[in-house]
Amino acid sequence: MYRVAVFIGSTRPTSSNLKLAKALEKLAAGKLEFDYVQIDNLPFYDDALWNDPPAEVIRLKREISDADAVLFVTPEYNRSIPGILKNAIDWPSRPFGESVWTDKPGAIAGATGGVSGTAAAQMHLRSILPVVGVALMGRPEVYFQSRPGAIDDAFNITDEKLRSNLLIWVDQFSKWIGRFAEPRAAESTPVMIAGAA
Ligand SMILES: Cc1cc2nc3c(=O)[nH]c(=O)nc-3n(C[C@H](O)[C@H](O)[C@H](O)COP(=O)(O)O)c2cc1C
Of 117, 105, 85, which is closest to residue 8 (Cα–Cα)? Predict the structure, then answer.
């Protein structure tokens, strides 16, 4: 079981991106454990604040460090990512040389009512995240056009073909994380094996 720190680019309680993340979480049950990271209490990035770093920033960096992987599920704002998400990416990348994103396996997805499925926003994420150190999974990509009923109230993907494709995404993301991390279950394996033969 891998622990994934999840960043949602929208703070709306009824966010379609939060709903998509919850649907992915459900599909990934038993393989991935999602921890939703709070990003709406961070100050705007200010280098001077490192003199006495805000508790929210310390907490954010710790949550990323403790995770096996990171996942970004975001809407597209004006053909890019929302400012709140960029701010949450910038903070953990500093102080210089102390980025907690380094070598952290990651993936991205996004939902919008538009036909492009957040493609432009995801392209921007694909240029930002490797620069801060995230080891970003290239494919499969997830472009989700949210329509009423696409995800039901219990976070089930209602379209069977889409559901089976997202299961493939879960499988691929799990394998991607496995290239970088040891699963938490390994903690239950014995530290010493003694025997005679
Ligand atoms: C400032 C702003 C800019 C937006 N720009 C885009 C855009 O470029 N492309 C797009 O597909 N949708 C755009 N939208 C629509 C959002 O993708 C849509 O509202 C989405 O559902 C928001 O995500 P959420 O449901 O997770 O809050 C924009 C919305 C806002 C508020």
Answer: 85
